[in-house]
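Lab manual, section 2.4: Encoding a predicted structure.

Procedure: take the sequence of the chain (157 residues), apply the prediction step described in section 2.3, and record the output as structure tokens. A sample record is shown.
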Amino acid sequence: MIFDRFHDEVYRFAARRLGDPVLAQDVAAETFVALFPGIRRFRWTGVPFEAWLYTIARRRIADELRGQARSARVGEACKQFETESAPAPSLEGAIDMRAALARMPWAEREILELRFMEDLDAAQTALRVGKTPGAVRVAQHRALARLREMMDEGENR
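Recorded output:
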């Protein structure tokens, strides 16, 4: 069943972006609620099913983030995420990296999270983001270069 196969992955995807396990569970559920009525319209055009599913999840996450911004809950969610998942204070470099990641463009951060936090290979990541494995490797290279620059800027302050 589609739900059983992908629910945990979609939940983790949403949890990383939202920083709130309850909201992530809601977004995962909403993703499947939106998926099932539209599944009859899905036509394989060379883009994998997973890319379509993750597009729905990304839209639900964006909707949630917009809703948070309107109701001023973004600050609270960020504080909670930082408090619950921040590395130990002695890991200054990791803290700097987390801050730099948070400032990166969404698409670059997503590639790095999937590759290094979810430990997916380029082909698996490509399925999630709707790109080719080669495009994922190029995007990863660029994202890592940007992350290095951002961290260097942080050290020079």
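Check your result against the sample. The chain is about 80% helix and 0% strand.
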